[in-house]
Amino acid sequence: MPDAARRLTVLAEQVLGAPLPVRLRAWDRSEYGPPGTPVLVIRRRRALRRLLFKPGELGLARAWVAGDIDVEGDLYRALDLLAGSLWERGEGAARHSGLTALLATVRDPRLRAAGSELVRLAGVGLPPRPPREEARRSGGPLHTLRRDKQAISHHYDVGNAFYERVLGPSMVYSCAYWESPGATPDATSDSVPDATSDAAPEATLEDAQRAKLDLVCRKLALRPGMRLLDVGCGWGSMVLHAAREYGVSAVGITLSEEQAAYARKRVADAGLADRVEIRVQDYREIADGPFDAISSIGMAEHVGAVRYGEYAADMYGLLKPGGRLLNHQIARRPLKDEEAYEVDEFIDRYVFPDGELAPVGRTVAQLEEAGFEVRDVEALRQHYALTLRRWVANLEAHWDEAVALTSPGRARVWRLYMAASALSFERNRIGVNQVLAVRTPASGDSGMPLRARDWR
Fold it and tell me: What's the whole-model pTM score?
C-alpha cells in the first residue's frame, strides 16, 4: 500500500518535534496529514535527493523551481504555515533551524535511523542538475561594472511581454501607493467594479502606481525646465510621468538592454523624445551632471554594501546645490549581530543575484556621510504587500501566457518570490522606505518648506 506521505510526515515530525502543519501528497499518490490545510505535493523522489545533496534553502528552492514540489490550495497560507517549521528565521536564531535539523539526520548519530529512512525514500540517483533558471555567475569581486550588468540582465532580460502580464499597463516594478488598506486584491488590476454598488470604486494597480510616481515628483518639487536623472529607470514610467506631467527634461539609465529598448519606444510613442533620453549606463559612468533632481526607485538594493558609500557620494556629486534625491529602497530589519547577516539563497540564485538589503538606519547614515541632509523618511511597507498581491494575481490570471513567454521554472520563481515577499512585508520582516535627501548648500538654505510634507 502506498505510504510515502505518511513516512515522510512521521520523519519530519520526529525531527522537528512538532506536528507538520500541512497535508502531504507524495509521488506514489499517498496522502497524509491534517485535512482542510494546503497540500504540499512532492511530485518526484528527486525532490528529496535535491535536499540531501544540497541541504538548506537552496535545495528546497531547486525542487520548487524544477516542479519537483508544489502547493495545492492557498499558497500564502501554505507559506505562512510552513515558515515557522522550515525556514523562518528569528532574530539571533539559526537561519534554517527546522530544515537544517531535518537534513542533519543523515549525519546525527542520535537520529541515524531517521536519516536512513530519508535516504531510502529519496531513492538511488546522482545529484540532480540545478534548474536552468538558476543564475550562472563567474567568480571575482562583487559589484564590478561587468558583474552588476550580468545580475541585472538575469532578472530583467526575461522578456518585456512577460513583465507586461505581471505588472500591468503601468510597467512599474516597485511599490505602488495605495489610498487605503482595503485594496487587497482577489482579481487582476483590470477587474471591473460592480456598477450597481454605491461604494467608491476600488483603486486599480495602475491608479496606485500613478499615485506613487506623482508622490516622487512632488517630493522632488519638479518644475518645468528642471533636469531629472532617474537611476534604474526600468521601462521608463518615471521619466515619462515627470516629463509629461511636470515639464522636466529627463535622463533614465538602466543596465537592461530589453528595458531600454522598451522605454525608448514608449518615449517615442509619447512624442517626448526631445525631452527624455534613455541610456544603457551604470550610475558610476555618468559624466554629464549636475542634475536638479535624482530619483532612485527600487535600484539601490542592487548596489551592495561594499559600494553603497560610493553610490551615495556619486548621487551627491551629480546634484546641483539645493538638488534633491528621492531614494526608494527595500530594507531589512536590523540584526543584533550584523556579522550574522546572510543573503537569502533562493533570492540570490533565482531572483536578484548579488542583491543586498540594509536597515533603513544604515541607509540614512551613509547618505548623511556622503554630505546629504536627510529631510524625510516615509515607510511604505504595507503598500508593498498590497502591490505584490496584485502582481501575484496578475501572474496567476495570465499563467499560461507567462509560462509560454518564459519557462515553467521562471514563472514558478516569480510566483514564489512575490507571494513570499508579500507575507514578509505584511509580517514586518522587511520594509520599504522613501528617503528624501537634499544637497544643502553652504548657506544652509535647503529650499525645503518649513512643513516638508506639503506634497500630501
Answer: 0.90
